[in-house]
Write a structure and sequence with these properties.
- By secondary structure, this protein is an alpha+beta fold.
- Helix content is 23%, strand content 25%.
- The chain is built from 14 helices and 44 strands.
- The strands form 12 sheets. It has a 10-stranded mixed beta sheet with strand order 13-22-23-24-35-39-40-38-37-36, with helices on both faces. A 5-stranded antiparallel beta sheet has the order 29-34-31-32-30, covered by helices on one side. Strands 1-10-11-12 form a 4-stranded antiparallel beta sheet, with no helix packed on it.
- Helix 10 packs antiparallel against helix 12.
- It is globular and about 90 Å long.
- One of its GO terms (cellular component) is plasma membrane.
- It catalyses: L-threonyl-[protein] + ATP = O-phospho-L-threonyl-[protein] + ADP + H(+); L-seryl-[protein] + ATP = O-phospho-L-seryl-[protein] + ADP + H(+).
């Protein structure tokens, strides 16, 4: 070593130490002062590093608001925010600083005031400081006296309840502290509050209706947290018993993030309601929610109040009686149901048995239903919040009153008595048998090692998924965004694990969007059970479908897969349409799949379709403020607007569905060479045959002509309407469901002009016969 090198190192050492100390000081900054405001270039961080206060940049399209983010246990979720209208205020160069009067203020690029703490008597600006504490509380206090707290975010929460933060009425200040839903929507909002009349209860108020949902109690006050009341302030706080827990209110949903201190356990997410069926007034008057399909149905003797809103059998606006009730006892009939919970506002009646309870209801003209379970209960007026109990052993029986049409009243009462007796005996035997089976199954389930899995959306560790998939050795398939592997969880549940590749989303956006997709529950959509986000790794865990994908049944040249007859194909088409209609029109967030094709349709053990592969799905707000222009999807199913560069809407999925529907009908790829050696683009030929009234020739040859001709005609017309060149000409998926079900008439569609450019013979030249037919059609 040169003799000068030690001297040089000795001289550079102080500089190196100075730089390191200054870098540490910059990284550890956790205050805002009058001379040192917060900008979007660098956040302030709590001393323990668990929380960060971050200002948005123009690139932050998902969460464009100043927010405190929880980084503890790699949660990376916003826990407090300042609402700004990004359509009015640009997020360029925002600044959070101390004003001249000592308030914490948010300024826009031009210096306009956006938000302020509005403290009436703050300290002088040169002594006021904003500090982000280790608890996640942003505190504005006197810098010369830290005990003099002027304002704190804990007293002004947004949508998240943190450990140690107060909730309820503060007797010392007169302030009412409660959570407000993330979405600022005048048509729907919610709040989480504490009701202190009598014993304290946590309640969810929705839509400002004055109706409270007390059933949220079991999620907000579970066994994993302890609730404490401040004797002086009267407010309530909570702390996790084993690990770290936060509670988030998001519209009608409440999430509970819980992270164990044991790294091998990690974090998991639970939410309330577990299904739409527990949302207040979800199905309207007399509507019954089916917890399996998440759809609203009408009881026997009732019809939808608004048939137009009853798309796909989902009657969310309630039901009305076919025949109004009368006061004639002999004209009343009852239909029995098993509900998860009895409707609200029953009246007790001192009946000694079931018959006396029914008689009490029948003798009262306004009685609409009764239940004899732990006493007699009668209902008067509309039944609200009814949910069927399909697979539970502890449901509540209820009998809904209907009116027998006088023209159909039974003229032979003795036959009715015999039939009733036989029915009661058989019904009782069936109920007992089902009860024994359900009880046995419930006991069997209770012995599983993962009690959280059944009702939660889980965060998996990478090591757990590596073990479940046997080091990713059981590959099921390869997609555009990654590979899919078969896995087995510790409770023997089969899952499909998708290992994403090339995903450019940040972890915050990935977690937020995946959680939204995980909330989706529909009978025709593959359920997302959980995810993994560790470092650069992104994995999705889905329920496993035993019959594979639709393409293997339609296009396979072997006999190894189940052959689909026409009835199965038509039922599959309707199921896919219902699933898409749910994504487009019924979800809390507007979801466009962007890659509908047979490979992304899975079939369960009953050959019912499930829409899969949300790796390419994009979330949209309902007002259309976020649009897609970057091409994604699969050639052959892409709508024309993908090519033209226009903004993408849900009608792109409609187009893809139409293309796929042609393949379901024909059992062949749309671009496959026909039997006579030509390369006639199948949708073009199909459109021409629809106009000629010769749709039978479009049917899969393997079906040997065995198909319902009316359904075939309807399916072909629907497919052609879906692939129209103009978005405005394509039907919405809700209307597609109605057309396939025969509720809506389907007219003959025009041949899309662009299809006439996809006609070739075996030599590669245009097929003049088909092209001429296109010209003839357009000339009409």
């Amino acid at each position: 070593m040169n003799s000068e090198e030690p001297k040089l190192l000795f001289l550079l050492a102080p500089i190196f130490v100075f730089c390191c100390c200054n870098l540490h000081a910059v990284a550890a900054r956790h205050t805002i002062t009058a001379g040192n405001p917060l900008t979007s270039n660098q956040p302030i961080v709590s001393e323990n590093g668990d929380f960060e206060l971050i200002l948005p940049t123009p690139d932050d399209f998902y969460y464009a608001r100043p927010a405190i983010w929880c980084m503890k246990y790699n949660l990376e979720v916003p826990v407090w925010s300042v609402y700004i209208d990004s359509t009015v205020v640009t997020t360029d160069d925002l600044q959070l600083s101390i004003s001249d009067d000592g308030n914490l203020i948010l300024l826009s690029k031009d210096g306009s005031l956006i938000w302020s703490t509005n403290v009436t008597s703050p300290a002088a600006s040169n002594s006021t400081v904003a500090v982000l504490l280790d608890s996640g509380n942003l505190v504005l206090r006197d810098g010369l006296n830290s005990s003099n707290v002027l304002w704190q975010s804990f007293d002004h929460p947004s949508d998240t309840w943190l450990p140690g933060a107060p909730l309820g009425f503060d007797r010392s200040t007169g302030n009412h502290i409660f959570l407000t839903s993330f979405y600022v929507d005048p048509s729907y909002y919610s709040s989480l509050d504490v009701e202190t009349v009598g014993s304290p209860q946590f309640v969810l108020q929705t839509n400002g209706s004055g109706e409270y949902d007390h059933s949220v109690q079991h999620l907000v006050v579970p066994t994993v947290i302890d609730i404490h009341q401040d004797s002086q302030r009267g407010t309530f706080t909570f702390h996790g018993r084993d690990g770290y827990t936060i509670i988030v209110l998001d519209g009608k949903w409440i999430y509970r993030h819980t992270c164990s201190e044991n790294p091998s356990v990690g974090c998991f997410l639970q939410y309330y309601p577990f299904s739409s069926c527990v949302v207040r007034f979800y199905c309207g008057p007399f509507g019954i929610c089916n917890a399996t399909s998440m759809q609203c149905i009408c009881p026997e003797g009732f019809l939808p109040t608004d048939p137009q809103s009853c798309e796909g059998g989902d009657c969310i606006n309630g039901c009305r009686r076919v025949t109004p009730l009368s006061c004639k006892n002999e004209s009343s009939s009852y239909r029995g149901y098993i509900f998860e919970n009895l409707p609200d506002n029953p009246q007790s009646f001192p009946a000694s048995d079931h018959e006396e309870c029914e008689s009490a209801c029948t003798s009262n003209c306004s009685c609409t239903a009764y239940s004899f379970s732990f006493g007699c209960k009668l209902w008067h007026g509309d039944l609200i919040d009814s949910a069927l109990c399909d697979h539970c052993s502890d449901g509540s029986p209820i009998s809904i009153r209907t009116e027998i049409d006088s023209r159909r009243r039974n003229k032979h009462p003795e036959r009715s008595l015999i039939g009733l007796s036989v029915g009661v005996v058989l019904g009782t035997a069936t109920v007992l048998a089902v009860g024994l089976i359900v009880t046995w199954r419930c006991k069997k389930r209770s012995r599983t090692t993962d009690p959280i899995y059944s009702k939660s959306f889980r965060v998996f560790s990478y090591s757990n998924l590596t073990s479940a998939t046997k080091n990713f050795s059981r590959k099921l398939g390869q997609g555009s965004f990654g590979s899919v592997f078969m896995g087995t969880l510790r409770d023997s549940t089969l899952v499909a694990v998708k290992k994403l590749q090339g995903l450019r989303q940040g972890e915050k956006q990935f977690r937020a969007e995946v959680i939204t997709v995980g909330m989706i529950q529909h009978i025709n959509i593959v359920r997302l059970l959980g995810f993994c986000a560790e470092g650069a790794r992104r994995l999705l865990v889905y329920e496993f479908m035993t019959n594979g994908s639709l393409d293997s049944h339609l296009f396979s040249k072997t006999n190894s897969n189940t052959f689909l007859d026409w009835n199965q194909r038509y039922r599959i088409a309707i199921g896919i349409a219902r699933g898409l209609a749910y994504l487009h029109e019924k979800c809390k967030d507007f979801i466009i799949h962007c890659d509908i094709k047979p490979e992304n349709i899975l079939l369960d053990e009953h050959l019912s379709p499930r829409i899969a592969d949300f790796g390419m799905a994009k979330l949209f707000t309902r007002d259309g403020s976020r649009v897609l222009t970057t091409m994604r999807g699969t050639i052959g199913y892409l709508a024309p607007e993908w090519i033209s560069g226009l903004a993408i809407t849900h009608k792109a999925d409609v187009y893809s569905f139409g293309m796929m529907l042609f393949e379901v009908i024909s059992g062949r790829r749309n671009t496959e060479r026909s039997e006579d050696g030509t390369y006639v683009y199948f949708p073009t030929w199909a459109a021409a045959k629809i106009h000629e009234g010769e749709v039978a020739c479009l049917l899969d040859n393997k079906l040997k002509g065995e198909a319902n001709s009316e359904e075939l005609e309807r399916a072909c017309r629907v497919a052609c309407w879906c692939i129209q060149e103009l978005e405005s000409s394509r039907p919405a998926m809700g209307l597609v469901v109605q057309m396939l079900e025969g509720v809506q008439e389907v007219n003959i569609p025009p041949i899309p002009t662009y299809l006439c450019n996809f006609v070739w013979d075996e030599n590669g030249s245009n097929d003049t016969q088909v092209r001429g037919h296109c010209v003839d059609v357009f000339a009409e």
